[in-house]
Structure formats: structure tokens, C-alpha cells
Write a structure and sequence with these properties.
There is one protein chain. This protein is an all-beta fold. It folds into 2 domains: 36 residues, no CATH class; 68 residues, Beta Barrel (OB fold (Dihydrolipoamide Acetyltransferase, E2P)), CATH 2.40.50.100. A 4-stranded antiparallel sheet has the order 1-2-3-4, with no helix packed on it. Strands 5-12-10-7 form a 4-stranded antiparallel sheet, with no helix packed on it. The chain starts with a strand and ends with a strand.
Length: 142
């Protein structure tokens, strides 16, 4: 849609021209819509207009996400995007508040990920050299 300001006989008009079909264009003058027919034939562009079809969202299998999400366990989330350097615990280990769970590199710094809850490790959702995004699930504690 293109907008023009035209002065006709001293009167200012704000005109919006939208695309139309064949020789008819949609024109809006000061808020009033008109369909205007153009007398000479419009030059049709040589390049076709491409219309993309709607792509469905991938299923969990298609997206290759293998990390299961369990709702009962406490989830330790990634505070920043980064790469896992070391995993210091294994499933079945008992942890207390403040224990180191893993080390990840984020923003060219090594960051210790500490346990915020005491319990038993029920799931480790990452491995060494995995790249994670912020709020990805790293470890689950019950």
C-alpha cells in the first residue's frame, strides 16, 4: 500500500493506493474507500507471485528432541546458552543444596551449576559437549 499527499484546487488529500486486480485499484481518500478503474491496460510483472504453503509444526520424533520431560522432579535449568564441559554427577547420586552438578561454558567463562535442592539425581538430560539454550533442562532431582 502506498500513501500520497495530493493538493487539488488548494485542497489537501491523503490518498492510499492498494494493489488491485486487472484495471481496478483500491483507493482510499481521506478515509473513504473507492474502487477506481484505470483506462489503459496495466503492465503485468514478468515474475510470478510466489505463495508458500503453510508448513506444519514438526512432531517430537521429527524434531529429534530426545530429552524426556518428567513433571514430578525438580528441574535444574540452564541459566545461559552455552556448552557442557563436565558432568560431575550420575543418576542415583544423592546431592545437597549447593553441590556442584556440572560445569558449562557460557560467554567464554566456565560456570558451575549448583544444586538448588537436596535429593537424588533422577535424570541427566545433557552430555559433555552438548550445546544448550537458556532454560533448557539439564538435570532432574527428586
Amino acid at each position: 500500500m502506498k500513501t500520497y499527499k495530493l493538493t487539488i484546487r488548494g485542497q489537501l488529500y491523503e490518498v492510499e493506493i492498494s494493489e488491485g486486480e486487472d484495471n481496478i485499484l483500491g483507493v482510499e481518500v481521506n478515509g473513504t474507500h473507492y474502487d477506481v478503474e484505470i483506462e489503459k491496460e496495466l503492465i503485468k510483472p514478468k515474475t510470478p507471485k510466489l505463495i508458500r504453503s503453510q508448513v506444519p509444526n514438526p512432531t517430537r520424533k521429527e524434531s529429534k528432541i530426545t530429552k524426556d520431560i518428567s513433571s514430578n522432579a525438580y528441574q535444574v535449568l540452564a541459566p545461559l546458552p552455552g556448552t557442557i564441559i563436565k558432568v560431575l554427577v550420575k543418576e542415583g547420586d544423592k546431592v545437597n543444596v549447593g553441590d556442584k552438578l556440572l560445569i558449562m561454558e557460557a560467554m567464554k567463562m566456565e560456570n558451575d551449576i549448583l544444586s538448588e535442592k537436596s535429593g537424588i539425581i533422577t535424570g541427566i538430560k545433557v552430555a559433555i559437549s552438548d550445546t544448550v539454550l537458556q532454560n533448557d533442562i539439564l538435570i532432574e532431582i527428586k
